[in-house]
Amino acid sequence: MPAHEGTRTYDAVIVGGGHNGLVAAAYLARAGRSVLLLERLGHTGGAAVSSRPFAGVDARLSRYSYLVSLLPDKIVRELGLDFQVRGRTISSYTPVERGGRATGLLVGGGEERTRRAFAELTGDEREFTAWQRFYGMTGEVAQRVFPTLTEPLPTRAALRARVGDEHAWRALFEEPVGVTVEEHFRDDLVRGVVLTDALIGTFADAHDPSLAQNRCFLYHVIGGGTGAWDVPVGGMGALTDALADAARAAGAEIVTGHEAVRIDTDGRTAEVTYRTGDGEGVVAARHVLVNASPRELAALTGDPAPEPAEGAQLKVNMLLKRLPRLKDSSVDPREAFAGTFHIAEGYQQLATAHAQAAAGELPAAPPSEIYCHSLTDPTILGPDLAERGYQTLTLFGLHTPARLFAHDNDAVREELLKSTLAQLDAHLAEPLADCLATDADGRPCIEAKTPLDLDRDLGLPGGNIFHRPLGWPYGEEDTGRWGVETRHANVLLCGAGAARGGGVSGVPGHNAAMAVLGE
């Protein structure tokens, strides 16, 4: 497909300036390729951005994606990114009422402290021993599997051989994760804490025969080779700002306010038609990398649309004047909220919530989890707010599929937010509403996003944060050598919907760049 006369031609045109598109741009530009990145919005970053959502308030929140686990050090190092993460000293706190007494499970603060916490909750050390054995197993798998994410896709047999442990392979890759959880643990609360990693952004039951929950669980426990989830210093936007700087420094051209509307290709060269406020334009390229969902890719190329995707989460951002006191007075709120604060996430509670949502009803006790970014990284708050003890809270709700919001998104959002916060209030010694800060107009500093909101704002299909159901980290039918290939030889998918996509990883961007470079 020869370029039309006067059409600018690049080695690579990248559609979409989310973190994966920026990773690809930086790698290709550093390799000496001419690169143009087209971003629809007025800024780069996609879902990995920081913003000040509350009028007149100097708090820069990670508005959508909010923790880092799957970003390989290899990418940070090779691109020379000015970016850091901080670990959380507390892994999680899960409140519960037992025997008429407010108590809970605090995981973190050292092995001995965690051991005591398990014993106080369950009556002995058996669950702690099982916890160590279980996460020792997942840790071994993480060390073997995580490095493969930036290599050509292994076959299933090759990955199985690399994992080595047949029990671990069966537990994570072949049987529903619910079987494994029930084999290892007896306590309902402990089982629920473990299971949540299988449900973040995935609407599934612990025993779903599709194993969608297993794939989600696997990606949550292999990050960095350890499974640790870290806090991005400066907020998630600090990562994408660093990536944009790296791409520009290497020579990539990045333009915002440019919406790609069509890709025409003959497999050797391609033309991308884009729209701006001033009209339409066309650029030509040897390769086109699409940092968008498979749904958007199909719309651009005119191919048949993929199976509809669906998200199942509520995302809530809050700013507090102070952290709320807990009914469990044995735990300092500064520790409880520093890790993942699990709400209504007992094993049976999760099963009930899933069954209710699958039946078309909002869960009566919506499960969710919260963490406080500013406890680990206070730089996201203006000096005045930090001095006055203000804190951020990020809430991620589970088991609320997009279909539940289809009739009246605004009304259902309000109802769900109210019931979700009521589940949190049940474990607080004071209402959360009393702790919320107010913005310059006197409104509470809280915003909620449903799956339909995320589809509208970011183009996530049905609000699915992974763009489509996660796949296994090995080659399957039609996944190609790197897992980024499409039916068009010179059009690659470098968004979260690529094989080994999902999460803030940069892996699809890296792999698409390697596919272009022939490595």
Automatic annotation (TrEMBL):
<feature type="domain" description="Amine oxidase">
    <location>
        <begin position="21"/>
        <end position="306"/>
    </location>
</feature>
<comment type="subunit">
    <text>Interacts with COX5B; this interaction may contribute to localize PYROXD2 to the inner face of the inner mitochondrial membrane.</text>
</comment>
<dbReference type="InterPro" id="IPR002937">
    <property type="entry name" value="Amino_oxidase"/>
</dbReference>
<comment type="function">
    <text>Probable oxidoreductase that may play a role as regulator of mitochondrial function.</text>
</comment>
<dbReference type="GO" id="GO:0005829">
    <property type="term" value="C:cytosol"/>
</dbReference>
<dbReference type="Pfam" id="PF01593">
    <property type="entry name" value="Amino_oxidase"/>
</dbReference>
<dbReference type="GO" id="GO:0016491">
    <property type="term" value="F:oxidoreductase activity"/>
</dbReference>
<dbReference type="InterPro" id="IPR036188">
    <property type="entry name" value="FAD/NAD-bd_sf"/>
</dbReference>
<protein>
    <recommendedName>
        <fullName>Pyridine nucleotide-disulfide oxidoreductase domain-containing protein 2</fullName>
    </recommendedName>
</protein>
